[in-house]
Write a structure and sequence with these properties.
The chain has 109 residues and is an alpha+beta fold. It is built from two helices and five strands; from the N terminus they run αβββββα. β1 and β2 form a beta hairpin.
Length: 109
C-alpha cells in the first residue's frame, strides 16, 4: 500500500498532487472546512525521506508544484512540521497526527 493510500484511510478527504523537479515528490492536502467555510488548506510534502508541512499560503493555487520550503509558509510548530522518516508507515503516522493536530481533529472525521 502506498503512502497516500494508507494516509487517506486515516485522513478521509485528503487529496494527492504529484510532481517532479529532478526528483519525484508529492503534496497531500486537506481542505479544513468549518461551518461551510474553508479555514485553511493544510499540506504535507513527501519525497520518500522527509515530510515538510504547513498551511498553504494560497490554498494550493499558485503554490501547487512549489516545494513547501519555497512557499514562505511557516514550518515551525505548532502549524509547521519538518521530519525525516525511515519508513512509509512512520511517514503516515507523523503526517496523520500532524493533520489531526492542525485541524483540531476535523481531518479524521
Amino acid at each position: 500500500m502506498t503512502f497516500f493510500e494508507r494516509l487517506t484511510e486515516l485522513i478521509p478527504g485528503a487529496q494527492d498532487w504529484y510532481h517532479a523537479d529532478g526528483a519525484l515528490w508529492m503534496i497531500v492536502s486537506y481542505d479544513d472546512m468549518v461551518d461551510g467555510v474553508m479555514e485553511a488548506t493544510w499540506r504535507v510534502d513527501f519525497d520518500g525521506t522527509e515530510l515538510v508541512a504547513g498551511r498553504s499560503p494560497a490554498h494550493l493555487n499558485w503554490d501547487d508544484g512549489v516545494r513547501g520550503r519555497d512557499t514562505g509558509m511557516s514550518l515551525q510548530p505548532p502549524t509547521g512540521l519538518v521530519a525525516g522518516v525511515d519508513t512509509v508507515e512512520q511517514a503516515v503516522g507523523i503526517a496523520a497526527e500532524w493533520f489531526n493536530t492542525v485541524s483540531r481533529g476535523r481531518a479524521s472525521l
